[in-house]
Amino acid sequence: MKPFPGPPAHWLYGHAHEFSQDGTDLDKTVVWSQKYPYGHQVWFGPFTAYLAVYHPDYAKALLASSEPKDDVAYRFMLPWIGDGLLINSGQKWYRHRRLLTPGFHYDILKSYVQEIAESTKIMLDKWELLSTKERSVELYHHISLMTLDSILKCAFSFHSNCQLESNNSYIQAVYELGFLASERFKTFQHHYDLIYYLTPNGIRFRRACNLAHEHTDKVIHQRKEALKNEKELERIKEKKHRDFLDILLCSRDENGIGLSDEDLRAEVDTFMFEGHDTTASGISWLLYCLAQHPEHQQKCREEIQELLGGQEKFEWEFLSNMPYTTMCLKESLRLYPPLPGVSRKLSKPLIFPDGKQVPAGCLVALSIYSLHRNPNFWDDPEKFNPLRFTPENSENKHHHSYLPFSVGPRNCIGQHFAMNEMKVAAALILNRFELEVDEVNLPIKTPQIVLRSKNGIHLKIKKLEK
């Protein structure tokens, strides 16, 4: 790490004491990125170090390879999501990536739009009741349940009714697993399995994990039994809406071999984990940005109302006819990327464009949050300005200065699904409600597995007149 000097470190704690969980952690990385524009070493305790990088050229070098993702960042989720596409590497990753890619084809994503719209409308009906009673509403929880509802429909064709009856055991298990993994990351002594699984949270995590696996195994078993019937197999191949599980069960590699039961469960659980919390974060921060900037909110609303023409039915074709709303979404993803950082564990030495290098075995973490605020590539980077993403302005930016879904061979396979879901939700919300910031309850950013707010995202919502 000597070629990459960094902030002074305590002899025992390293830089751990710099991260206080008071909502300033990400702002601190921005300050560091301006002092050390390419990267610097970060120490957690005297034995664990990683290289933090911030520059687009360094990002390009790091993400061009198919190096495995950092097992430390995701290992707390490993008991639930297993060795799926998010975590696995090598030939297994290549094989799974090939088998899963058809699940995100244009024709498949097209069939999901109505499912997402249906889930969003359930949420909006709840908001109508709340808007008459509450001064402001904490939206993140509602949006997270909505995206979970959507992903259940798209992954399993499972209509859970979780937005109205969130006491369903599987819903509670999924919700709890994400929360407990985030909480575990904050407590260093809980990083050791032996200690963690003796704590109340560790016991809750194992119980929730077992419940989630039982549900996934049951659904997979029932669908596999159904597929033994040739007529049912033909019906699934021809039906209008093929869910994610259909795609996985019918996928075969060049040798005619499909995924094992263990791999099937890992991929479905990974899709559940990655597909609901990240989009919930993206939608919530977009609404917060639009509430802060009513002039942009109104431009989006006018664009959407012209598309919908006085109705609430959302069509697939609308997604490509929302240029201003899309620019606002891209700008909110710049300021508040759902995944504030990504990391890789090097299996071979990595040489950066300036000649500096790090050896195999090192951990390299790219701060997407700080990259998106680099003043050398973004004018007035803290300002919300959707016009950065007009076609002419987009042509002039560094290709690796904006990475909300990462890039390279290990980029987010579900990015088009996520963008579609965020657009559908934003359109239907703005068509029905006006949003205003609650100055008493401003969000406090916290980088957990995804970018959240410690106190939720509170907005005043007002139903629009017909």
From TrEMBL:
It holds the Pfam family p450. Belongs to the cytochrome P450 family. It is found in: Endoplasmic reticulum membrane. Its main location: endoplasmic reticulum. Keywords: Endoplasmic reticulum, Heme, Iron, Membrane, Metal-binding, Monooxygenase, Oxidoreductase. It comes from the Eukaryota. The keyword Oxidoreductase applies. One of its GO terms (molecular function) is oxidoreductase activity, acting on paired donors, with incorporation or reduction of molecular oxygen. Heme binds at residue 412. This is Cytochrome P450. The keyword Endoplasmic reticulum applies. GO terms for cellular component: endoplasmic reticulum membrane. Its cofactor is heme. PANTHER family: CYTOCHROME P450 FAMILY 4 (PTHR24291), CYTOCHROME P450, FAMILY 4, SUBFAMILY B, POLYPEPTIDE 7 (PTHR24291:SF201).
